[in-house]
Amino acid sequence: MKIIHKISQIREITKNLNVSVGLVPTMGALHSGHASLIEKSVKDNGFTIVSVFVNPVQFGINEDFDKYPRTLENDAQLCEKLGADVVFAPSVDEMYQDTRELTLVCPPYSAINKLCGKSRPGHFDGVATVVSKLFNITKCTRAYFGQKDAQQLFIIKKMVKDLNFDIEIVPCPIIRESDGLALSSRNSYLDENARKEALKLSRALNYSKELWQKGIRDKDILRDSALKILEGLDVDYVEIVDPETFEDWQETGKKALMLIAAKIPPTNTRLIDNMEL
Ligand code: AMP
C-alpha cells in the first residue's frame, strides 16, 4: 500500500485503472467506524483510496483544528491491514494555495440553517468544498460516508445530485462501542469521567426510541425525555427530522431521525450522535 502526498501522483495512479475506485474521505485518527467504511469499499471496488486530511476550511476559528489528533503512521497501518490500496494524505498547502481566495461549494441555506450547520457557520461549505476536490482528484466511482454525520451525508448526497457528480454515495451504519458510545476521533479528548458523561447521548437516543416503539409520537415528549437524560451536558441541539428531507419531523411522518449534539464538560468536547426512532 502506498502513502501519497501529491495530487499529481494520485492522478497518475488513477489515470490508467480500469476497475471501480472507492474513496473513503476521513480526517484520520482512524477507528473501527472508519474501518467499517474502508472494509466496505475494499469489498465493493477494485481499488480503494483512503484520504486523510484535516481540512482547515471546515473548522471555525475557535474550534479544535490545531489539537485535532494526527496519527498518520497508525492510520496507514490500519488501512494496509484492511486492504486499502492508497492512503492520500496531502498537506494543507497541497490542497489549498490560499484559503482566503478560495472558490467554495456552498450547500443551500435550507440545508445548513439547522443542526450542526447552524452552530458551526461555514462548516458545511468547507466540507462540500473539500469533498468536491477529493472527488475531482481521485475520480472515484463510489464514496463512503458514515451515518454518524447524518447532516453531512444528506448534504453530500444533495451536492452530488445538484452538481451531477457521476459518483455513487454509499451510506454506512454507525459503529458503536459495546456500551453504546458512537466511535469518534474526538473521543480521545475524553477522560474516564467525561467518557461516562458522553454515554448520555446514546442513552437519550435509545430511550426516545423505546418511547417511539411504545407508540409515543408527541415531539415534545420525545425531545424532553432525551433532554432529561442529557442533563449535565452543554446541549447544542436535540432535534427530530424526516430522514429523507431533513425537514422538521411532522407527527404524521412515518420515519423520524433524532439527532443530538452536546459538549461534554469540563473537556468542552463537542460530540454528535443520531438514531432512527
Ligand atoms: P471523520 O474522520 O470524522 O471526518 O469521519 C470520516 C468518515 O467516517 C465520515 O463519513 C464519518 O461519518 C465516518 N464515521 C466516523 N465515525 C463513525 C462511526 N462511529 N460509525 C460509522 N462511520 C463513522
From TrEMBL:
Superkingdom: Bacteria
Any GO CC annotation of this UniProt entry: cytosol
Pathway in which this enzyme or protein is active: Cofactor biosynthesis; (R)-pantothenate biosynthesis; (R)-pantothenate from (R)-pantoate and beta-alanine: step 1/1
Subcellular location: Cytoplasm
Active site residues according to the UniProt entry: H34
GO process terms (BP): pantothenate biosynthetic process
Pfam hit, one: Pantoate_ligase
GO molecular-function terms, A-Z: ATP binding; pantoate-beta-alanine ligase activity
Annotated binding of beta-alanine, by residue: Q58
Binding locations of ATP: 27-34, 146-149, 175, 183-186
Cross-referenced CDD domains: PanC
Binding-site positions, (R)-pantoate: Q58, Q152
Subunit and partners: Homodimer.
Family membership: Belongs to the pantothenate synthetase family.
Miscellaneous comment as given in the Swiss-Prot or TrEMBL entry: The reaction proceeds by a bi uni uni bi ping pong mechanism.
NCBIfam families: panC
Name the UniProt record assigns to this protein: Pantothenate synthetase
Originating organism: Candidatus Galligastranaerophilus intestinavium
Gene for this chain: panC
